[in-house]
Design goal:
alpha/beta; Rossmann fold; 4 domains; five-stranded parallel β-sheet; five-stranded mixed barrel; 13 helices; 16% strand; elongated
Length: 352
């Protein structure tokens, strides 16, 4: 039995009783039959309570819980502390304000409570980072010491998206030791990975199983600690939205290669580590006039063009290279073009 159904039953009973009392009072006021008015207004109360009770009881509380779930623990603590400070200041001003002549003596203390409560919450939430920084360096408290010899001793967590696990490059990146912190994999990401691995579509099933293998490799061979957490976000069904909310609560970045998730997270102020951007950043840089050797493996779109690829996957388009298919050529770079898909190099045959 759901909470909403129970609230409807309780509301039906409460408003039925209120309707009966109201109908009785109305009948006495107009001089009509008491039983008729009591039953009529009582039935209207039953209908009102049965239909509308969840809209001002359960559903507002559910929306409030969902909104609070999106707020980090630090923000909640700062807001609560600010509210307490604001109410204390308002309480100190209540007595002198109450001595003012009417109606100010009755009105201003109440307005002071609202004003200073709001100002306290706003100010402490706005300056929450400075506040907690001051609390961490107060006398008598030792600041956390980071081990300079171990770059992975940082307590920072990095949330992993399903797409980056399936991609597989994260295992090699983690093995290099460039990622400092703990790789955090929420349980709902694992559930999505398992759902993909059990898909009736053979291609999706193969991708899901590859993700499982990459995850196993991460846990066994990587130098970066990997942790699976049961932390979940209530009231949210989409995995991407859960990741963004969880990243805001934990104040940690998301590691992904999903373009849509990247954009959504950036719009909400969440730091993103994109594997595709990293791959483009570490590709070899060529300047016009430099020479390189490339193997022509296919024809280009334009007449007489040949296409080859470097070891890092960079495409090289060679003028007059079509006649040298399946051959190694020394070429000279003429132009480098950066696209959303990666870097493209345009070149021509090197003059002998």
């Amino acid at each position: 039995m759901s909470v909403e159904f129970v609230s409807r039953l309780i509301g039906m009973v409460v408003f039925a009783v209120l309707g009966a009392y109201l109908g009785t009072a109305w009948a006495k006021a107009v001089g009509g039959p008491v039983d008729f008015y009591a039953v009529l207004i009582g039935l209207l109360g039953v209908l009102f309570g049965l239909i509308l009770t969840p809209y001002f009881t359960v559903r507002p509380m559910r929306s409030l819980r969902k909104a609070l779930g999106r707020v980090s623990a630090q923000t909640l603590a700062a807001g609560l502390l600010g509210l307490i400070v604001g109410l204390v200041i308002a309480a100190l001003l209540t007595f002198p304000l109450s001595l003012l002549p009417s109606p100010f003596g009755e009105l201003l203390p109440f307005l002071a409570v609202l004003l200073f409560g709001y100002l306290g919450v706003s100010l402490f939430v706005l300056r929450q980072h400075d506040l907690f920084t001051v609390l961490r360096i107060m006398p008598g408290r030792s600041a956390p010491v980071e081990d300079d010899q171990n770059p992975t001793s940082s307590t920072r967590s990095i949330l992993l998206d399903t797409s980056v696990i399936i991609d597989g490059r994260i295992a090699d990146i983690a093995q290099t030791g460039f990622l400092a912190g703990t790789l955090l994999i929420p349980r709902f990401v694992l559930n999505e990975l398992q759902y993909i691995a059990d898909s009736p579509d053979s291609l999706r099933r193969q991708r899901g199983r590859r993700g499982m293998e990459v995850l196993s490799q991460l846990q066994k061979e990587t130098v970066v600690p990997v942790r699976i957490t049961d932390i979940d976000v209530e009231g949210v069904r989409e995995v991407d939205e859960k990741l963004v909310i969880l990243a805001r609560q934990l104040r940690c970045p998301i590691l992904t290669n999903d373009y849509n998730l990247n954009r959504i997270a950036e719009l909400q102020g969440v730091s993103v580590l994109n594997v595709n951007e990293l791959a483009n950043a570490v590709k070899l840089v060529f300047l016009p006039g430099e020479s390189l050797q490339v193997s022509i493996i296919q024809e280009g779109k334009e007449a007489s063009q040949g296409v080859g690829y470097l070891d890092d996957g960079t495409m090289v388009v060679v003028e007059d290279g079509r006649e040298s298919l399946n051959q190694d050529l020394m070429v000279v770079v003429t132009k480098v073009l950066q696209t959303a898909a990666g870097r493209m190099v345009f070149a021509r045959r090197e003059k002998e």
